[in-house]
UniProtKB/TrEMBL annotation:
This is Bacterial type II secretion system protein E domain-containing protein. Pfam families: T2SSE (PF00437). Residues 216-408 form the Bacterial type II secretion system protein E domain. It comes from bioreactor metagenome. Belongs to the GSP E family. InterPro entries: P-loop_NTPase, T2SS/T4SS_dom, T4SS_GSP_E_ATPase. GO terms for molecular function: ATP hydrolysis activity.
């Protein structure tokens, strides 16, 4: 039995061990002795495997590791985290502060593993690698939030307090997480790490901060003293879905009809300014993003976004850029000379000779600069928070007044001239999104305004089914034709007559 294993024995590599085996072979031993020897061989093989694993981790010369009995069993994870954070900060802080350092992730994991092994640390319910990964995630990433921030199908993470976190999904679901931070201090530390990416500082001097994690992830944060001490922090992490929506997706989900979408894309193509209005999570940015993808490659686009970039309109074919796009973002700074706002970028836009300018969202005084640009002949696309198509104009007026001291009537004349088309989007009670209305504001020869509802979503019933699910039934309908003045403008901008005719409602026979 022993002889059959001799050829593969780990002793073969060592002459002393060979002499040891030869001596034993020459002795008369019992079956029990043979069994003990085989057991010893297996133990040495296991030891060799451990040595190989330790070598991979860079700790082959250590006499103790996670593979041996730890000195501390069931230590609290938060205590271990504090110890490891202190160790890394004191010895390898560059791995945390320098985002450009190559292999920083692997280096930090290696040093965390080294510390855990040296101290023979164990946490109940975690094996060695799980502990190292969890420590790394807490220190260099965003803890349990990481998988939600960078996961698919998630639109928003709402942190109501350190122990109350909700996730909103793209399909309308809202879920409270069982996971939470360990304490208010833990929550603040993780959020500070997020804000570090955009160079923002969260402290008692600046307890309200806006920042971003990447071009499609925005974060708004409040900390004490703006929220209670036992809450610690409140934050909203908004994730703009990177998936590019197609016309078929909007039609399939009943957000809008094919006719409505074609109508809007034709307007933008032929130089008409459009404002997409709605509340938070109504789908404004998604609609705007799709509209921009329909613009021909020979049209020059200039985009302006606040703080972080959500739009990505550059098109490639065979490795070459085939369209003409300039993406810009604002830069915030306490130093006024270094600050670059949307008004400055809109001023620059006119010098770049764009066919279409895009203002990601109108929130303040930039609304006045945007309407000024739209009245120069450039098509301006933008979004705004408003309750309806008609109220959108009043909201624009109030934003413009932050920049200029003019009468409401004068500004109303400006914004209705600048944006003849308003699109109103809404998230319904059942979390489904609908394009509720497309409206044209026609300015009459005497200066009065005629609001024309071109398309409308008509709700026929709201009810609950037997499972408690909210059901909303309705349909989209084209209600009015575009005005003669808009028809004339489109014709002058190059739109074929047969397309203009599709924008007119056929009279129903009596």
């Amino acid at each position: 039995m022993l002889g059959s294993k001799k050829g593969n024995s780990v002793f073969k590599e060592d002459k002393k061990k060979q002499r040891f085996v030869s001596k034993i072979e020459n002795e008369s031993y019992t079956e029990a002795t043979a069994f003990e020897l085989e057991k010893r061989v297996e133990e040495l093989i296991d030891t060799a495997k451990i040595h190989k694993k330790s070598k991979e981790l860079g700790t082959e010369n250590r006499n103790h590791s996670l593979f041996f009995a730890p000195e501390s069993e069931g230590k609290d994870f938060s205590d271990v985290l504090k110890d490891v954070q202190k160790y890394i900060s004191n010895n390898y802080s560059v791995l945390i502060t320098d985002n450009n350092l190559e292999d920083a992730k692997e280096q930090m994991k290696r040093y965390i593993g080294k510390y855990v092994m040296d101290k023979r640390i164990a946490v109940k319910g975690m094996d060695g690698q799980e502990l190292i990964n969890a420590l790394y995630s807490e220190m260099a990433e965003y803890g349990f939030l990481t998988k939600y921030i960078f996961g698919r199908g998630i639109e928003e993470i709402d942190i109501n307090s350190w122990q109350d976190i909700e996730v909103q999904y793209s399909d309308g679901r809202n879920e409270k997480l069982n996971e939470h931070f360990d304490s208010p201090e833990h929550a603040i530390n993780v959020i500070r790490r997020m804000l570090h990416v955009s160079g923002m500082v969260l402290d008692n001097a600046t307890p309200a901060v806006l920042g971003h994690l990447s071009k499609n992830i925005r974060i708004a944060v409040l900390k004490t003293p703006l929220v209670d001490e036992d809450v610690g922090i409140a934050a909203s992490i908004r994730i703009v879905n990177p998936q590019s929506m197609k016309k078929e997706d909007f039609v399939r989900s009943k957000t809008a009809t094919e006719q409505m979408l074609d109508f809007l894309s034709y307007l933008v193509r032929y130089g008409i300014s459009v404002c997409v209005a709605g509340a938070t999570s109504s789908g404004k940015t998604t609609v705007l993003g799709w509209l921009l993808t329909t613009i021909p490659n020979n049209k020059r686009i200039y985009t302006i976004e606040n703080g972080s970039r959500e739009l990505d309109l550059t098109k490639y074919e065979n490795g070459k850029v085939v369209n003409s796009v300039i993406h810009t973002i604002t830069r915030d700074s306490e130093n006024e000379k270094q600050k670059v706002d949307q008004i400055t970028l809109l001023d620059m836009a006119l010098r770049f000779n764009p066919d279409i300018a895009v203002v990601g969202e109108m929130r303040g005084a930039e609304a006045n600069a945007a309407q000024e640009a739209a009245r120069t002949g450039i098509a301006v696309l933008t979004t705004i928070h408003a309750n309806s198509c008609e109220s959108t104009y009043r909201r624009m007026v109030s934003l413009c007044k932050r920049a200029v001291d003019m009468s409401d009537e004068t500004l109303m004349g400006y914004v209705t001239e600048a944006y003849p088309i308003i699109v109103f989007c809404k998230q319904l009670e059942n979390k489904e999104r609908r394009m509720m209305e497309i409206m044209e504001c026609e300015i009459m020869p005497d200066g009065t305004r005629n609001y024309r509802t071109l398309f409308q979503y008509i709700i026929t019933e709201n009810r609950m089914d037997e499972n408690g699910k909210f059901i909303i039934e309705g349909y989209h309908k084209q209600k009015c034709s575009i005005s003669k003045s808009l028809s004339k403008r489109l014709l002058e901008n190059g739109m074929p007559l047969d397309i203009i005719e599709t924008m007119k409602v056929k009279e129903e026979p009596f």
